[in-house]
Specification:
- The complex is a heterodimer of chains A (275) and B (360).
- By secondary structure, chain A is mainly α.
- Chain A has one domain.
- Chain A has helices at residues 2-27, 33-44, 53-65, 75-98, 106-140, 144-179, 188-204, 215-226, 233-236, 242-254, 261-265.
- In chain A, helix 3 runs antiparallel to helix 4, helix 6 (144-179) runs antiparallel to helix 7 and helix 7 (188-204) packs antiparallel against helix 8 (215-226).
- Chain B is mainly alpha-helical.
- Chain B folds into two domains: 27-196, no CATH class; 242-360, no CATH class.
- Chain B has 13 helices and two strands.
- Chain B has helices at 2-23, 31-47, 71-78, 86-110, 119-156, 161-195, 198-204, 209-236, 248-272, 282-309, 311-317, 322-325, 332-358, and strands at 52-57, 60-66.
- The radius of gyration of chain B is 23 Å and the shape is globular.
- The chains are: A mainly alpha (275), B mainly alpha (360).
- The interface between A and B is medium-sized, with 28 and 29 residues.
């Protein structure tokens, strides 16, 4: 009797194992659509969308406080934050266009949850920031003194937004570099673009360098040059345009020592051959 | 005793499962079987020799010019009437180009040594055999559909325009399936060629004009489905595009179609009728291979975008309203942007670069 039960249990265990394997394979994520939809949602409906109300409220607020004489000491930081936010919209749109075409690799699987969480934390900070503005402005209006006093709180929100978005974008770049299989879109040009973005964003999240004049504007000019729908042509043409190829490879090798570096940083590398 | 029986049954069951899984690698198609399938195809062409006729199309001497339809349809084709002229300059042209590659490489494929075939080659042969069988079936369907079209237009042409349009669309679906199968056959031939040593040899040796021509034709075979998938499988097979609702989205897709049509004309003039009679250095042929390898990975993204955008659903079920369609297909804008980028930049850039190399 005992033996029969034992055999019966063994058979059940074997069936359970087989069914588990089958169901895991059936429902396993096979492509990158899930992350692509997440990024798309953030850039089309969420805080990286220009039409997002919270985004607009924060943008309007930053524009106002950057002009206050009482916050002169923080002016460059405020401007950097505003420009960086606009730059992240462009970067977000770029990745939104690319991620769905990447391969589902271990690098993708390691980072997709973290990217999602980083965007969520940034979104929470944006929502809290917008809520804070809405509640307090209802009470005191656009009072200059109030803005001066509350900047310390608002600065905290901006730091959260920038640091979490930087985290998400840095991981997206990692996924892109590992998972985009074609050199048409993943090449020395895209490598140096991401490296440069990382350099600036790391300065944005550092207390010591966030107030560097023009930091945000440089980042914004740079991403507008290379990561918009028109701008990314410079990545697409890498294989066909010998000028782009030689300049990108030179910068990749020599970094700031390259004679093309300043031109690159200023967003001036352009397609000279082909379409 | 019972316990032993149960354990034995379990063991036999497991062994059977493993056996079946192991044996699933067997049943490979032999070169001989593939040859027989090709002969079946020849017999079908012979059977319908009054339909698949000899002639010249797109600068190619061919056996696959589809002979006339009814007078009413032939007149519309001759007048370049939109909706009808595609039967010749798109469907028939694509069929001819696809079959030209298949025919040119058939002997090479069938002359492979059975014992020397790699696992990739065997897989490619299996796929080719399957696609040949699908193509043969679709030829029979096409012949039947053509007869139905001719009967309709002979009896009712011009009486009810909607009926003519509907009849034409039904015919195009079947014709389109045949053309798609022909393209799959030629693509599978190209894939099989990839698995043999010929392309590797071309990388390592100084290429002759004939070698350059081989590479050009290989690239041509791989490019062809880009055009047939977009224009035939997605659009012509499913709708009369000009009759779809006007709007911003339709204008965008129309612009996309114009880019693809321009690219198709470029493809025909440079990859079909023009001879690569230039001897190139091996370094440049190697560059060509590298460029092609990367480009066709990008082309895979084009196919993904095309499939997932699902133009027929957008056009027919959503009246070309992209903003409404986004509620069902969140990434529709992403897919459409990828198609535009591919058609406007990647595809023409690649074709121009290939021409630079093989026709300096």
């Amino acid at each position: 009797m005992k033996k029969r039960w034992f055999i019966f249990v063994i058979i059940l265990v074997i069936i359970a194992v087989i069914l588990t394997i089958v169901f895991i394979n059936l429902f396993r994520e096979k492509d990158t659509t899930a992350l692509a939809e997440n990024v798309n949602d953030v850039t089309q409906n969420g805080y990286l969308s220009e039409e997002n109300e919270a985004n607009q409220a924060i943008d309007a607020y930053l524009a106002q406080v950057s002009g206050l004489g009482s916050l002169e000491a923080d002016r460059t930081t405020i401007e950097n934050y505003a420009d960086a936010y606009a730059a992240f919209e462009v970067i977000g749109d770029f990745f939104s266009r690319q991620i769905v075409f990447t391969e589902n690799t271990s690098v993708y699987r390691e980072n997709r949850g973290r990217i999602r969480n980083a965007f969520q934390r940034a979104q929470n900070a944006v929502d809290d920031f917008a809520e804070y503005l809405s509640q307090n402005m209802d009470v005191v209006g656009s009072d200059e003194d109030w803005m001066t006093i509350t900047w310390a709180n608002c600065k905290g929100y901006m730091q959260d937004i920038i640091s979490n978005t930087t985290d998400a974008v840095t991981r997206l770049a990692l996924v892109y570099q590992d998972c985009v299989t074609s050199k048409v879109m993943n090449n020395a040009m895209s490598d140096i673009i991401f490296a440069e973005i990382e350099k600036w964003t790391s300065q944005l999240i550092s207390e010591e360098t966030v107030s560097t004049a023009g930091l945000g504007q440089q980042l914004l000019t740079f991403v507008n040059a290379y990561l918009t729908i028109d701008g990314e042509n410079v990545i697409l043409q890498f294989q066909y345009d010998n000028n782009i190829k030689s300049q990108a490879e030179n910068i990749n090798e020599l970094g700031e020592e390259s004679t093309f570096y300043s031109q690159f940083v200023a967003g001036l590398i352009e397609v000279t051959e082909g379409v | 005793m019972k316990t032993k029986k149960v354990l034995c049954s379990l063991a036999i069951c497991c062994l059977s499962v493993f056996g079946v899984l192991g044996l699933s690698g067997c049943g490979n198609v032999s070169i001989q079987s593939l040859s027989e399938t090709f002969q079946e195809l020849d017999a079908v062409y012979q059977q319908y020799s009054n339909i698949f006729t000899e002639g010249e199309l797109e600068g190619l001497e061919t056996k696959y010019v589809i002979s006339t339809y009814s007078d009413a349809v032939d007149e519309e084709i001759a007048s370049n009437t939109e909706g009808y002229v595609e039967l010749l300059d798109l469907y028939n042209a694509t069929l001819v180009i696809a079959n030209d590659y298949t025919d040119s490489n058939r002997d090479y494929v069938l002359s492979r040594e059975e014992d020397a075939l790699s696992s990739d080659s065997r897989r490619a042969i299996n796929n080719l055999n399957e696609s040949l069988n699908d193509y043969i079936d679709s030829i029979h369907d096409f012949v039947l559909a053509r007869t139905t079209l001719i009967e309709h237009f002979d009896r009712f042409a011009g009486q009810i325009p909607e009926s003519d349009e509907s009849s034409l669309l039904r015919f195009k679906k079947v014709y389109g399936r045949m053309v798609a199968n022909a393209v799959t056959v030629s693509t599978d031939v190209a894939t099989l060629v990839e698995t043999t040593d010929i392309l590797e040899l071309l990388r390592k040796t100084e290429p002759t004009p004939a070698d350059t021509e081989t590479v050009k034709e290989y690239i041509r075979a791989k490019l062809l489905p880009i055009f047939s998938e977009f224009r035939i499988s997605q659009i012509e097979n499913n709708m009369n595009w000009s009759a779809q609702r006007e709007g911003d989205c339709k204008a965008r897709i129309t612009a996309l179609m114009e880019s693809m049509n321009e690219a198709f004309e470029n493809f025909k003039s440079n990859f079909v009728t023009r001879d690569a009679n230039i001897q190139r250095e091996s370094e440049q042929i190697n560059l060509l291979f590298d460029l092609a390898e990367e480009f066709f990975k990008e082309a895979d993204q084009f196919y993904i975008a095309l499939e997932r955008l699902d133009l027929p659903t957008l056009a027919i079920s959503y009246d070309n309203e992209l903003s409404t369609y986004l509620s069902e297909n969140e990434l529709a804008e992403v897919y459409l942007t990828k198609l535009e980028q591919f058609a406007n930049i990647s595809l023409p850039s690649f074709m121009d670069e290939v021409c630079e190399i093989i026709y300096p």
